[in-house]
Amino acid sequence: MNAQLLDLAKTAVKTAKRAGATDCSVVISSERGVEIGYRNRQPETIKEASTLSLLVRLYVNGRYSAQATSDLRPRALERFIGDAVAMTKLLAEDPFRSLPDPSTYAGRAQVDLGLVDPDYPTLTAAQRHAAARAAEEACLARGGARVISVTASVRDYRSAQVMLASNGFEGFEESTTFVASAQMTAQDEGDRRPMGSSFAAAVRRAALPTPEAVGREAADRTLALLGGRKIKTETLPIIVENRSVGRLLANLLQPMTGRLVQQKQSFLTDKLGQKVASERLTLIDDPLLPGGLGSRLFDADGIAAKRRTMIEGGVLKEFFVDWYYSRKLGRPPTTGSPSNLVVPPGTRSVAEIMRDLRRGILITDFIGGNANSTTGDASVGIVGQLFSDGSIVHPVAEMNIAGNTLDFWSRLAEVANDPWPYGNVRSPSLVFTDVVVSGL
User: Do 3-29+49-105 and 120-223 have matching folds?
Assistant: First the structure.
């Protein structure tokens, strides 16, 4: 554990207790981030930033507040915590606010999740610039005369966090993150200017695709949108590409949070143990996935992380319930937020599935949209490709799908074999049948 951060956290806890706090927890976060972006073969963005901040959660005679500061000089910190405790004493009581029971800290996995790239210190400015340039050049070359503009960037972060609570919790986390992206706008018929992109993130730099691959994919995805048009409103099977599944899952995940469940603002409030999706859907929250972007040994409350099956065979098994809402709901806590979301893959490729579906739409992106967590009603714009007998017919644009989330997920018919590796949503492409796609 970083000794300097730990000593500072211990000092903050002691200061809060001396100032009159009944209990408290302290989180100290340190991060360094670098971003290099290129446009028109010139650097457009060059950023480097380091941050160090302290968050203190105070429990004072049944009252609670959480406050943060970036001024960690000893006298300034002492004054900040003293003022924070004094302010907390003026708030209304909340009988459900407390530090978690120490029993929830027990059972923390004793494993190395592999969240730090050991080569991070050797990464140079020249290498960052070379990667951003390579992605831009590859995109420009593949896009050819159709290119209006291209931007490409690389970002990397190294972060550390120590968490300490007055009832015995002590934890430290450290991670690195690398991101590569490219975006291209192309000239289409008339004044249409479709835009496509490619994006990948990983804990280790070597796990990313090459910058050239990122650039070429951004161009290919943009060029595939040329000539996009509406078709008549039709009931069709759709395939949602793996990298876009997270947008769909969000309509299920938000209503699974303890806050919305407790406040009766979730259409899933009374659905625990019931079928909420097709039997094809199993959704796992796996914080212990080695090298996962969402991996962790404990959550924001300090609750020991464990693998949980949230939906199994379409049946809702768990909610995301933090300590506070577990007390309000009168049920054991699970965890307050998702980590790595895993949908187990099927056996067939998207190409094989397209051949069997005959006619449908492969959705490669979503645009805008809204979702009501209370009713489950949702609507979103789509971008993709109309296909027939396994072959692409033409791109589709300016179309949308709308309906109820429960009804939509009941139409999940198949899970492909291509889990997306570059995010915290490890889902394959998903196939839905009998979906009304609105167009002309």
Answer: yes
